[in-house]
Amino acid sequence: MWAAFAGGTVLDLSAHDDRRVRGEVLTGLLLGAYPLDDGAMPALRLDNAHVTGEWELEGREVGHVLSLHGCAFERPPDLRMARLVTLSLRGCALPGLRARNLRVGSDLRLELGFHCTGVLDLTDATVEGTLRLSGATLTHPEGVALRAERLRVTGSVQAIALQVAGELLFTGADIGGGAHFSDAELRNPGRVALEASGLVVTDSLFCDNGFDATGSVRFAGARIGGDAVFSGALLSEAPSRDKHVLVLTGDADADGYVLDADRLRVDGDLRLDAGFTAAGTVGLRGARIGGHLLLSGAVLGSRGVLPGLEAAFASGTPVTTVPFALVADGIEVGGDVEARDRVRGRAGDALRAHGQVRFVDGVVHGSASFSRARLRAPGLDALFADRLRVAGTLFLRHIRVSGSVRLQNAHIGSSLDCSGAHLIKPRLRPDGTVKPSLDARVATIGKDLLCSRGFRALGGVRIRLSEVGKRVTFQGARLGGRTKPGHPVPTRVLQAYGLIAQELVLLFDERHPPAGSVALTRATAASVTDGPGLWAARGGVELEDFTYSAIRADPEVTVRTRLRWLRQVQPDFAPGPYERLAAVYAEGGEEEMAQVVQLERQRRRYSELHVAGRIWGKLQEWTVGFGYRPWLAIVWLALFWLVGLVWFATHRMVRLNSDTDPVWNPPLLATDLLLPIIDLGQDNMWRMAGVSQWIAGTLIAVGWILATTVAAGATRVLKRG
């Protein structure tokens, strides 16, 4: 041993029957207890030895190379506060290692079969090189297997294929290079498997390529200078308590996270993709991602929560707790959020979540795509993203959601694209009624809202008081209905109260009209495109104060068809829809159509009055068309004048006064009787008797009625002008 140390050569004891080396001897050699010859180049290179007793270098400084390979230690070496040039324990078996405040001037090698069955304590240690743990096995199931709190490594941490039974503790560690945990296997079920809160990694973090953790993984408040890669990782069996949260609190407990990355800072991309599986909640609250957040191919949440949610929805019973798959409230992403299928048409490559996905108050400086994702939280908000801000487009194309999508007060810089989305089993209210499948009330969308090309929302859509810069389309959409017989259904399937848009397309299939009411009250659109499917809505269409500047149907319909649509959806008369339709026709130069609409408005108005009002309305309609057909009065006057002319031409009257000798003039007499104000001097010259008296009275009455209705009609015409 002395000779090998003095010459710096390797002493391999694998061929010796007795491989024991006392730890005290190693200590004495390193601390100069055994004199060396002049010119010696000492180094401790020992292979396959069995080290007995105490190897203790506490507080000592050793200027020699320490390389022990394949050695077995009887007791934990004590290297606390020691200062070493280098230390290599490759393939060694230790019952523990006491190395608090250890300082190593180059690499620290604990790899390639290194096995520690106690606590490997590197608290506050400094490694001025690389910490190598690749292929090592750390076993301490009842506690902390590796304690590396506030560890300082100027190089990287290489822990590829590391196997740990117990907790891996890197709280507050500072790594000057990258941290590589690829293909590592961590086992601490029901407890914390990797605690790295406050970790600082100057380069990238890799927990991918077969990384498998049974127990929670924590990177809360960590800082990653490059990418944080969890592609293909498998995380399971987080602490069981507080995995759910009351709906009223709207918060989650980090103790239930399988991956806790709250307040994480990543300068590059955060990759939770390519088969990443978290059988529990992933927490990203307040995280800051400088690049992209990649979720394509990820599977999040526990499948075990689904049977209870399915049963509750089927019975119409609202749940009181919410299981989470992803909690990313307050997250900020500098690039895109990618949760879509990476290969077109392959839904298996998109995100799958069992439980609620939350992005409340999130900010995405690029676009966010959940196209073809599968989100399952029946009876709950499967995607909860109130006040989400997306600078680009939010893609929900062909997404399949068992639950609701909630985007209240969201701000989408470009479009919200829900083309082909299927939203079933929406959230239930406390009374068991159905909430909207897509709830984007008070949202702001810079360009288009697209709910077409097979879009289906069984709970309906709510875009109350939302603002859309260009187009809102529901072409071919199916709103309302139930997933299975007995499931609850909504009464209102489109709530667009106060919606503002440039173009509104409401083209529903006649075979599948909205299965509830459509509310367009106080909505505003520059142009509207509709069809018979809209007006066949089972709950009617609410149109009070609905404002638009142009309207067309696909296929085109006549004005009388539109009036029939209005009658069938408005059993109770309201003047607003008729006035708006008439104004649109008039502004478009179609005065005749506008008059038809106004006539219908007056008919419906008078039809709901008392008997006298209805009679008066009928008189105005027949005589002057409520002022919109004044020529009818002339027709009626001509008709009654002709009746009077024929009668008086064949029935000469007797003079009323024998002192006068008036000329008998039947045409002038009929005219004098019909005109109530003008006196032509004929009706007072003759004595009416018998039938002639009734004819004369009828002409006088008709004259007064026509004069009154003409005056009323003229007044309406003047007001309209």
Describe this structure in words.
The chain has 721 residues and is of the alpha/beta class. Among the domains are: 50 residues, no CATH class; 91 residues. It contains 11 helices and 67 strands. The protein has a 35-stranded parallel sheet that branches. Strands 25-28-33-37-41-45-42-38-34-30 form a 10-stranded parallel barrel. About 2% of the residues have low confidence. Keywords: Membrane, Transmembrane, Transmembrane helix. This is Membrane-associated oxidoreductase. It comes from Actinokineospora spheciospongiae.
Distance between the termini: 117 Å
Average pLDDT over all residues? 87
Global structural class:
alpha/beta
Uncertain runs are 241-252
How much beta, percentage-wise? 25-35%
Fraction of residues in helix: 10-25%
What would the principal axes of the Cα set say about the shape? rod-shaped
Q: Helix segment count?
A: 11
Specify the biggest β-sheet. Answer: 35 strands, parallel
Identify the notable features of this structure and list them briefly.
alpha/beta, 35-stranded parallel β-sheet, 721 residues, 67 strands
In short:
The protein has eleven helices and 67 strands.
Write the layout of secondary structure elements.
Elements lengths: L1 H6 L2 E3 L7 E3 H8 L13 E4 L2 E3 L8 E9 L2 E2 L9 E6 L4 E2 L2 E2 L4 E2 L3 E2 L5 E2 L3 E2 L4 E2 L3 E2 L4 E11 L4 E2 L3 E2 L4 E7 L4 E2 L3 E2 L4 E11 L4 E2 L3 E2 L5 E7 L4 E2 L3 E2 L4 E3 L7 E3 L10 E4 L4 E2 L3 E2 L5 E2 L2 E3 L4 E2 L3 E2 L4 E3 L4 H9 L6 E7 L4 E2 L3 E2 L13 E3 L1 E3 L4 E2 L3 E2 L4 E11 L4 E2 L3 E2 L4 E7 L4 E2 L3 E2 L4 E3 L13 E2 L4 E2 L3 E2 L5 E2 L3 E2 L4 E2 L2 E3 L4 E2 L12 E4 L4 E7 L10 E3 L4 E7 L1 H4 L5 E2 L4 E7 L5 H11 L5 H13 L3 H17 L3 H14 L6 H20 L3 E2 L10 H9 L11 E2 L3 H30 L1
Parallel strand pairs: 1-3, 2-4, 3-5, 4-6, 5-7, 7-10, 7-11, 8-12, 9-13, 10-14, 11-15, 12-16, 13-16, 14-17, 15-18, 16-19, 17-20, 18-21, 19-22, 20-23, 21-24, 22-25, 23-26, 24-27, 25-28, 25-30, 26-31, 27-32, 28-33, 30-34, 31-35, 32-36, 33-37, 34-38, 35-39, 36-40, 37-41, 38-42, 39-43, 40-44, ...
Antiparallel strand pairs: 29-38, 66-67
